[in-house]
């Protein structure tokens, strides 16, 4: 039986209260009030899920938790939803350097020193597992009302479609975190699948295989795309038709399904109506209303999580943790791969006196207002879709189209950019140079999306190893000496499952089902 504590944690998102629904004059106020929650055991089919308009309250509650600091209480300053896990994954790679331990947040992710702490509810294993299953649990309550929810068809589709997308995204990220990458590991254990509402005492499910999880999440994202097509987005934080296609493209890249990745990315570009912007037009990456943003979170002053926020850890000129010396910097190796004419060089500063012997200080992510600790979170930009299409086309041998899509981004970064490279060879290590077109696309992806999508996820799917060196700017303590970061088959970056799951799930065996605590099986 699943224990009560786990599901009390997993059901924080809903607020079962009809009062105040009409008082939410803006989405932001709805999101804020909706985070004040009670267990979903009390959710009634005749309550908030009875009609599509009312169902926006629990739906908005899920989105609010994607940029709030709430899980778990002992770890909230590095656990603030989507952006915290992106930062975690970036610091697990080689392109983003953390120069010092500082207050300790994210340092242990950077060192790969969290897996042994799976018995604690204050560390990553519990945090990540709990967060994504929370979103799944609450999405399942919304989906359970699919056949009974009243309202205009488009309004019902809008709510239900987003719930499918949230569930798909959550399973995708669980698979990215708690199993090896999809291709070549389809039959390996992944995570339990739940598609029905769960309550304290619900019998837990066993781990499904990687293939089974991907089958489920693909079914979900396809359903989301179908339902969201033709609906009108109410807020940038909502997953709309274009964003769902963007998620489909991300999934397809991991699955090495190049045709699907290409098609989804291309349609996402068209449907989003977003445009690639020059660097100066979205400085600070803190404005979700920018014309290149497909999905993000608008952070208003009374919803700022202050120290427990993305910009607190990134903006060294703010009042947050980055200012305490735990700087986030780009590796010198990656920086030097930019043309001297590349306008993205403005995102980092090689002359900053705080660089020391490390990498180069970042200016890419800045508070929009340091006094109110505000700055919007950007979760998907249209530039990613062009680079995804370019990679897929290159893999398919459609090199002219790949260069065209690559140039759609690069022409706004380097005046007169041209590319005459060919081929799809990648090095065994990310530092190995082949000179191929595919390598050029991946390199520009690394630079363009630095800090935005989680570098380790790309390293995993590309099946490359990586190294860190002091020449790149990495501190000696972070070099991962005697760790198999050069082995793409390593379990080094597969997180352990929290002990609470084994304590509450009769179908999970802590001996047979736990992921390796070490780097190898």
TrEMBL record:
Q: Which UniProt keywords apply?
A: Cell outer membrane, Membrane, Signal
The record places domain SusD-like N-terminal at 114-253
Q: Which subcellular locations apply to this protein?
A: Cell outer membrane
Its main subcellular localisation, reduced to a broad class, is membrane
Residue ranges constituting the RagB/SusD domain according to the UniProt record: 352-502
Any one of the GO CC terms: cell outer membrane
Q: Which CDD domains match?
A: SusD (cd08977)
In the UniProt record, does the keyword Nucleotidyltransferase occur?
no
Q: Per its UniProt entry, which superkingdom is the organism in?
A: Bacteria
The similarity comment for this entry is: Belongs to the SusD family.
Q: What is this protein's record name? A: SusD family protein
Which species? Phocaeicola coprophilus DSM 18228 = JCM 13818
């Amino acid at each position: 039986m699943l224990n009560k504590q786990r599901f009390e944690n997993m059901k924080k998102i809903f607020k079962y209260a009809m009062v105040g629904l009409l008082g939410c004059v803006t989405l932001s106020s709805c999101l804020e009030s909706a985070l004040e929650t009670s267990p979903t055991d009390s959710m009634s089919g005749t309550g908030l899920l009875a009609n599509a308009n009312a169902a926006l309250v629990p739906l908005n509650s899920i989105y609010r938790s994607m940029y709030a600091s709430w899980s778990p209480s002992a770890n909230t300053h590095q656990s603030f939803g989507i952006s915290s896990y992106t930062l975690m994954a970036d610091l697990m790679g080689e392109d983003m350097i953390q120069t010092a331990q500082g207050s300790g947040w994210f340092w242990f992710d950077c060192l790969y020193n969290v897996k042994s702490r799976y018995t604690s509810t204050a560390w990553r294993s519990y945090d990540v597992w709990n967060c994504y299953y929370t979103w799944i649990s609450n999405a399942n309550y919304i989906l359970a009302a699919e056949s009974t929810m009243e309202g205009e068809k488009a309004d019902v589709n809008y709510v239900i479609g987003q719930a499918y997308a949230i569930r798909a995204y959550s399973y995708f990220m669980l698979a990215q975190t708690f199993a090896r990458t999809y291709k070549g590991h389809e039959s390996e254990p992944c995570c339990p699948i739940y598609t029905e509402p769960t309550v304290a005492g619900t019998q837990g499910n066993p781990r499904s295989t990687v293939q089974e999880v991907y089958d489920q999440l693909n079914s979900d994202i396809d359903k989301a795309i179908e339902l969201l097509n033709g609906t009108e987005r109410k807020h940038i934080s909502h997953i709309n038709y274009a964003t769902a296609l963007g998620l489909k493209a991300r999934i397809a890249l991991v699955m090495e399904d190049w045709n699907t990745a290409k098609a989804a990315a291309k349609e996402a570009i068209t449907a989003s109506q977003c445009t690639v912007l020059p660097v100066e037009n979205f400085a600070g990456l803190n404005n979700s209303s920018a014309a290149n943003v497909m999905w993000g979170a608008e952070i208003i002053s009374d919803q700022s999580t202050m120290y427990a926020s993305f910009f607190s850890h990134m903006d060294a000129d703010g009042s947050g943790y980055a200012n305490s010396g735990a700087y986030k910097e780009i590796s010198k190796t990656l920086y030097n791969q930019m043309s001297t004419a590349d306008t993205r060089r403005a995102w980092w500063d090689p002359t900053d006196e705080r660089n020391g012997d490390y990498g180069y200080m970042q200016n890419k992510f800045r508070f929009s207002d340091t006094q109110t600790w505000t700055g919007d979170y950007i979760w998907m930009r249209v530039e990613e879709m062009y680079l995804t299409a370019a990679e897929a086309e290159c893999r398919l041998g459609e090199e002219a189209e790949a260069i065209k899509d690559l140039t759609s981004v690069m022409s706004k970064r380097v005046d007169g950019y041209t590319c005459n490279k060919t081929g799809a060879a990648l090095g065994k290590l990310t530092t190995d140079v082949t000179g191929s077109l595919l390598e050029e696309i991946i390199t520009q992806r690394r630079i363009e999306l630095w800090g935005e999508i989680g570098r380790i996820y790309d390293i995993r799917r590309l099946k490359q190893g990586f190294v860190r060196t002091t020449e790149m700017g990495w501190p000696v303590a972070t070099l991962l000496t005697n760790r198999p970061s050069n082995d793409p088959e390593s379990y080094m970056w597969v997180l352990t499952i929290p002990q609470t799951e084994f304590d509450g799930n009769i179908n999970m065996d802590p001996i047979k089902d736990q992921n390796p605590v070490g780097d190898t099986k």
